[in-house]
Amino acid sequence: MSLLHNDNLGFLIADVSRLLRRSFEQSLEGSTLTLAQARALIYVARREGCRQVELAELLEVQPITLARLIDQLVAAGLVERRADPSDRRAYRLFLTAAAAPQLQAIEQTAALIRGAALAGLDQDQVAALLAALGQVRSNLCGA
Asked: CB burial class (10 A; 0-12, 13-18, 19+) of residue 66?
């Protein structure tokens, strides 16, 4: 496949990712959360109790950038830092009860965007797409 075609795998995935992010950002307008804060909150929910440095790696941001995001989420009462019992210089991240409605709103927004993105595809096509992308991710994780 030529790199000059518009349907090059890398470009297609990057375009879809950009368009999904844009849709999500537009849906968040008027919300108290930014896209970066929403992403961080989702990752804390997925990996509750993780260390900040681990979360920064997962989000592919610098630790200082994540520290500012977490500061904002702590100030909003959505996340709390707890001292790491095995490393007093580190903190572990946990959700507060106030995060639940925010996470539910994020999931509802994501479901609407997912529905729009996958419109016109039947269940078998969606399953095949997800399986193929999962395999691509696995292939690249091992590379």
From this structure: buried
CATH class of 9-141: mainly alpha
pLDDT tens-digit map of 6-56: 668 889 999 999 999 999 988 877 788 888 999 999 999 999 999 999 999
Q: What are the phi and psi torsion angles at 116 (to 5°)?
A: -65, -40
C-alpha span between 2 and 89 (Å, rounded): 50
Q: Which residues contact 14 (CB under 8 A, 6 or more apart)?
A: none
**Among the listed residues 125, 99, 118, the one whose alpha carbon sits nearest the alpha carbon of residue 42:** 99
Per domain, the residue ranges of the chain are 9-141
Q: Is the pTM of this model over 0.85?
A: no
Sequence letter at residue 26: Q
Q: What is the DSSP string of 69-113?
A: HHHHHHHTTSEEEEEETTEEEEEEEEE-TTHHHHHHHHHHHHHHH
